[in-house]
Write a structure and sequence with these properties.
This protein has about 250 residues and is an alpha/beta fold. The chain folds into two domains: about 1-35, no CATH class; about 35-250, LmbE-like (Rossmann fold, 3-Layer(aba) Sandwich). It contains nine helices and eight strands. The protein has helices spanning about 1-15, 25-30, 60-70, 90-110, 130, 150-165, 200-210, 215-230, 245-250, and strands at about 40, 50-55, 75-80, 115, 140-145, 175-180, 190-195, 235-245. Strands 1-7-8-6-5-2-3-4 form an eight-stranded mixed β-sheet, sandwiched between helices. Helix 3 packs antiparallel against helix 7 (about 200-210). The longest helix is centred in the middle third of the chain and has 19 residues, at about 90-110.
Length: about 250
């Protein structure tokens, strides 16, 4: 069985078939020997969490409730500036608005640290020199967007992150958690009950997506939190897929 799996992995890496298959439970769990460990996500007062966001707002969609519940444990880094996110504005104006929104949301959460990089949307692939300066050495958990997010900056973020795992020091016990921003995860390892903080998350989302410009969008985003709660004794939860650094490095990326 091990030899068969090794041959399949080698075949995937040598061809473009990875572009045609889903990153589903078969890939994550069969090929790479991962074991589902679905349970409640818990952090303590000393836990250090680092979040990578591919655009302003992705972090709030995916784990805004978790950040708002444990703000002193979180540092949030948004890797692009939202320069092309508002179609009715030129890129400079759009970036200005999205930066303001990001900083307002971070202020609302009272997160320990946050930063938005001055990198235009759709150009992150050209900025590894900036990405590699990020210090990951103290993080216990690093949150990254879902590999399913078919977004050029998400792909670049994951590629850059894989490279700094190879190039830089990090804690041996580091865990990497994928969060849901644009697409749902296909399988899950952890959930966190955000029912007590759901109204705060809604307010955070409405800063990015005001009702007059995006009618009903916040409710639809929150809908996945309601859906994720079906298996648990709560009303809303956020969910994550977990990897060790070694497991993540082995996953082939598009």
């Amino acid at each position: 069985m091990i030899n068969i799996k090794r041959k399949v992995i080698d075949f995937i890496k040598k061809t473009d078939i990875i572009k045609k298959i889903n990153y589903n439970k078969f890939i994550f769990y069969f090929l790479f020997g991962l074991k589902s460990r679905f349970g409640e996500f818990k952090i303590n007062i000393n836990t250090k969490c680092l979040v990578f966001s591919q655009y302003p707002g992705a972090e709030t969609k995916g784990l805004g409730g978790l950040i708002a519940q444990y703000p002193k444990n979180f540092e949030i880094l948004c890797l692009t500036n939202g320069s092309n996110m508002i179609s009715t504005m030129d890129p400079i104006e759009s970036a200005c608005i999205k930066k303001q929104q990001f900083n307002e949301v971070m202020k609302m959460t009272r997160a320990k640290g946050h930063k938005i990089f001055d990198i235009d949307n759709k150009t992150l692939k050209n900025h590894y020199a900036t990405f590699k300066k990020i210090d990951i050495s103290e993080a216990d958990y690093i949150f990254i967007p879902n590999i399913y997010d078919n977004n050029i900056d998400t792909i670049a973020l994951l590629q850059h992150f894989k490279q700094i795992l190879k190039d830089k020091e990090f804690k041996p016990e580091l865990k990497i958690l994928m969060y849901e921003s644009d697409f749902p995860l296909c399988t899950l390892d952890y959930y966190i009950d955000i029912s007590p903080i759901i109204e705060t998350k809604k307010k955070m989302l409405k800063i990015y997506y005001p009702e007059d410009k995006f009618p009903g969008l916040v409710d639809r985003i929150i809908g996945i939190n309601a859906f994720r709660s079906i298996q648990h004794n709560c009303n809303y939860c956020e969910a994550f897929l977990a990897f060790t650094a070694d497991e993540f490095i082995k996953i082939p990326l598009i």
